[in-house]
Amino acid sequence: MIRKDLVFVHQELNCSADVxxxxxxxxxxxxxxxxxxxxxxAVFRRETExxxxxxxxxxIPHGKTDAVKEAFIAYIGLSKPFEWxxxxxDLVSMVFLIGVPEKNTDRLHLKAISEVSKKLINxxxxxxxxxxxxxxxxxxxxxxxxxxxEK
Amino acid sequence: xxxxxxxxxxxxxxxxxxxxxxxxxxxxxRGYEVKMETQGGMGxxxxxxxxxxxxxxxxxxxxxxxxxxxxxxxxxEDSGKILTLNPAExxxxxxxxxxxxxSLL
Lengths: 151, 105
Known about the structure:
The complex is a heterodimer of chains A (151) and B (105).
Chain A: E1 2-11, H1 16-29, H2 36-49, E2 53-55, E3 58-59, E4 62-64, E5 72-83, E6 91-100, H3 107-119, H4 123-130, H5 135-145
Helix pairs in contact in A: 1-2
Chain B: E1 2-8, H1 15-30, E2 33-40, E3 43-45, H2 50-55, E4 58-63, H3 74-78, E5 82-85, H4 87-92, H5 94-102
Parallel strand pairs in B: 1-2, 1-4, 4-5
Antiparallel strand pairs in B: 2-3
């Protein structure tokens, strides 16, 4: 569910659009998208409806669209926090970008995404995540959440 | 103190479950009993029974969409014991959310 190739720390990205484009490319390389452009559009569309910044320096942009082949959650840790949008003016240092197919979503994937989301409410967990020094370390931490999920 | 509620966001992927977690954590911190139903991508989970709703002191609706089984809450609605907020707001301010809910009592 959490994939090694979609976990990134210390990324030097400076605006939400760059983060979204960056993840769309990575997800496309991982073979998770039918149509990266359409996916990017869907995420932007959702973002303009209402900001996905949730406080705690976290944003959870997401797209639910047929452009997604298989549900995924990507993590991007930013080397320097930036203002996520002009609506909230929140500074963001951690981004979780979620892609979900419009129909036929695998339940197990959704469960995994919901478990990660819940974990973000926990301050200790956020602290651990932001101090991860490598993609590998962040991946192991995020992956550990889903070890207990029943198949 | 017994608090129940429903969390449901537009896409039903993340906010729903984060709002659930935020309220549950804050209630546990305060030693309150809590049960949050979720209506999201995985359907209805942790479903509230009529009895559980009746026994609750106050109801928190962290919802951005219409929910299933709204009629279960009619009695609480009539007695003014329901707080309705956007899930994003609940996630941002769990403590203020519970305070606001308690102010209905």
